[in-house]
Amino acid sequence: xxxxxxxxxxVRILDIGGTQSFWDLMTTGEPMEAEITLLNIxxxxxxxxxxxxxxxDARDLPQFGNGSFDVVxxxxxxxxxxxxxxxxxxxxxxxxxxxxxxxxxxxxxFPVEPHFLFPFFQYLPVAVRAQLVHRFDVGxxxxxxxxxxxxxEVRSIQxxxxxxxxxxxxxxxxxxxxxxxxxxxxxxxxxWRA
Length: 194
Hints:
Layout: H1 2-5, E1 11-16, H2 20-26, E2 34-40, E3 51-55, E4 71-75, H3 84-97, E5 101-106, E6 112-113, E7 118-119, H4 126-135, H5 147-155, H6 162-168, E8 173-179, E9 182-190
Parallel strand pairs: 1-2, 1-4, 2-3, 4-5
Antiparallel strand pairs: 5-9, 6-7, 8-9
Helix pairs in contact: 4-5
């Protein structure tokens, strides 16, 4: 919000993976003039003229021209788009369509995996992770009855280290978010005055 306050309105924001409820909470009491496009795999319900729902794939956004948005924002999405090549494709699109960007992702090296809320879950073999998710409720996930679906789900989350994340956004400032002195996540941002 501090970075957004630096911008004169109206500000065009693309939120990749976003929801209206997130922005309603974040902007409560904020006198921010903004048009916020919420991009998700499927359209989201919006109840305010300030929001636009768009459907698309963060790795390929031909519907948006270069520099279409004042800010591209994404919170904990890039780890869900697929392989490192897929993550690079998303990063390239973020940098192409945004005059500025702010992208957050969990730190792979944080001791507790943030999706499954299980210590060092990200380091277990895929087969072990899939069996755990197949047999038990784990973190935010309810038990997945199909072992194939469980395997696909655990494979779908590709956490990033600081080095790999920074390589996706060359020239960006990388901010480390801390919890109890440990880096829980990273933010790459660029385009604001230094």
